[in-house]
Amino acid sequence: MTFQIRLSAIKLVFFSSISFVYSDLGPYIINPTPYHPLILKSQKEMNESLTYWEFFPDILDEVPPHVFQAWFRGDRRVNFGNKFTILHTDTPPYNLSWPVEEGEYYLFHLFDPDVPSKRDPRLREYRHWTVANIPGTNVEKGYVLAEYIGLIRNHTKDMLHRNVFVLYKQPEKLEFDDVVIKRDAPYLDRACFSHKGFAREHRLGKPIAVNFFH
User: Fold this and answer.
1) Taking burial as the number of CB atoms within 10 A of a residue's CB, which of 47, 102, 153, 179 is the most buried?
2) Which stretch is the leader sequence (predicted)?
3) Given CA atoms 144, 115, 86, 56 in this order, what sign does their dihedral have?
């Protein structure tokens, strides 16, 4: 476990890492992984990257305060637009980290806003993964609303897709009537999602962490 002190808020924020594998019920914990260096970016650096990749205003209204930390197989870290392949993402990221506050619940989405393409995103947002009611970073204790799937296809030179992690701090532990999207669900069951609409419906406020890859 590592920690940092946010001097502006005079507040201790803990980062903890967990490791998990995929099951029919979603991700669950396995042995803890060795320490992985965190990606630390200033608000200016995050804003520059998100602006360059055209996140505002369709995907985000403002820059979240934190970086969502994720590592896929081969120790490939998600780092604001780096490129992955189907092989890298055929299993869920094996390590996730974000700042936590004691006693709070968290929710994250992984989605693609560029389906079928960035020029013609008529199926945006395409949901790859959603886990809610996560105590701290104990993802294995969360409630899986959409089971994980990786990249649908490898990218071409002219068609990069942004695959976006957004994290919310929930106001409380939530009850959901949503139908769980299974790993083998029909293609269109994951299409036309709106993380902003979902946040409004469940009073989640603004995302507190973000990261993305291609």
Assistant:
1) 47
2) 1-23
3) negative
| pLDDT higher than 70, residue 9 | no
Given this model, what pLDDT does residue 8 score?
A: 32
User: Is this prediction's pTM over 0.90?
Assistant: no
Beta strand 66-67 pairing with 209-213: parallel
**Residue-by-residue DSSP string for 99-119:** EE-TT-EEEEEEEESSSS-SS
Please check whether residue 198 is in contact with residue 168, taking contact to mean a CB–CB distance below 8 angstroms. Answer: no
Q: What does R_g of the chain's alpha carbons equal in angstroms?
A: 16
Give the Cβ contact number of residue 99 at 10 Å.
Answer: 24
pLDDT for position 153: 73
Q: Is residue 67 exposed (0-12), middle (13-18) or buried (19+ Cβ within 10 Å)?
A: buried
* Residue closest to 111 by CA, chosen among 191, 53, 209, 207: 191
> Has residue 32 got a pLDDT over 50?
no
Spell out the residues 6+ positions from residue 37 whose beta carbon is closer than 8 angstroms to its own. Answer: none
Return the residue matching tokens 């936590």. Answer: 100
Question: Could you tell me where the beta strands, DSSP code E, fall in the chain?
Answer: 2-6, 11-23, 26-29, 66-67, 69-72, 76-77, 95-100, 105-112, 126-135, 143-146, 163-169, 209-213
User: Using omega within 30 degrees of 0 as the cis cutoff, is the peptide bond preceding 125 cis?
Assistant: yes
Cβ count within 10 A of residue 50: 22
